[in-house]
Amino acid sequence: MPSLSVKTLNEPIRDHLRRDFTRLRAGWTVGEALARLREQPPEGKIVYFYVLDAEDRLLGVASTRALLLSPLDRPLAEIAARDVETLPITATVRDACVYFLRRRLLALPVVDEAGVLVGVVDMELFTKEIHRLDDAAIRDDLFQSIGVHEADADPRSPWRAFRRRFPWLGCNLAAGLLAAFLSGVFEGVLRNVVALAFFIPLVLNLAESVSSQSVGLSLQLLHGRPATWRSMASRFYREAATGAMLGLAAGAVVALAALAWLGRPGVALALLGGVAGGVTGSALLGMTLPILLRIMRLDPRVAAGPIALAGADVITILLYLSLAQWLLS
């Protein structure tokens, strides 16, 4: 069974890759792939058949069953399973442990920012008893042992945890102070229309809630996939549309309630615009921050939440009070 040190768990996965993995081209037929496999049998005891395009980008995995039972003239691209769990090249051995534990896989492909397959990490990293992994009990023992090592390597010291997390909490402190300063800038309109202050906690809470949702969704989407500018652009568009719909719906409810309560159309319009704009901006911020942090090789699980909440507060309070001043002055 494995004997992993904290030092090993923190090493980059690129230092532990196998480069002798089986490459199958998407343009081949099943017959061509089988002929190539007979000519060049795959090395290693754990074998997955990875289907690549001409630029070595990972397109999918062909199962042994599909290779053996499909017609020989059928293209590999048609039988390859496209939903493939991958590790980014920026991952550590600790990250690989987490992926193996969650997915119960014996090997994982490692891809770079462009989706190019650069290597494979498999259970040989953790044990030399590969010949015994066909025994379900042995596999369970191995996964349990990996989990123990991974958990033991986590920071146990409160001081170390504090040093890791407090800098990002500082983002919330800075945002709170900035929000207080911005409220002071708009002191005139708040003094003239005191009711605006009643809704500040609600407006901020809506934006923060959507921001937190977007961060969670983004982290889930990043799981097992590399962060790229292309993926960020597509998600940015989808989240913008979703955020706009959420913001308009929530803003309309708040604006109607304020109009019925206060009878002031200006306050209602400021609330509608502030909530709609704040929620939309917060959704975009929450979706893109984890991707940006991953690209910058920072831990999005620790940093994304505090930064997103801080940004949501600043964006929303500035938009809400700016609109109120323009509409009510």
Describe this entry's structure for a reader:
The protein has 329 residues and is mainly alpha-helical. The chain folds into two domains: 6-152, CBS-domain, CATH 3.10.580.10; 158-328, Tetracycline Repressor, domain 2 (Orthogonal Bundle). The chain is built from 13 helices and six strands. The chain has helices spanning 6-9, 30-39, 64-69, 76-79, 93-103, 136-152, 158-185, 187-192, 195-198, 200-222, 229-262, 265-295, 300-328, and strands spanning 22-25, 49-52, 58-62, 87-88, 107-111, 117-122. The protein has a three-stranded mixed sheet. The protein has a three-stranded mixed sheet with strand order 4-5-6. Strand 5 (107-111) and strand 6 form a beta hairpin. Helix 5 (93-103) crosses helix 6 and helix 10 (200-222) runs antiparallel to helix 11. The longest helix is centred in the last third of the chain and has 34 residues, at 229-262. The radius of gyration is 26 Å and the shape is elongated. The model is unreliable at 1-6 and 128-156 (pLDDT under 50).
Characteristic key phrases:
elongated, 2 domains, 3-stranded mixed β-sheet, CBS-domain, mainly alpha, Tetracycline Repressor, domain 2, disordered N terminus, 8% strand, 63% helix, 329 residues
Strand order of the largest sheet: 1-2-3
Distance between the termini: 72 Å
Low-confidence stretches: 1-6, 128-156
Order of helices and strands: HEHEEHHEHEEHHHHHHHH
Helicity range: 55-70%
| CATH class label of the largest domain | Mainly Alpha
Question: How would a crystallographer describe the biggest sheet?
Answer: 3 strands, mixed
The fraction of residues in strands falls at 5-15%
Question: Which word captures the global form?
Answer: elongated
Radius of gyration: 26 Å
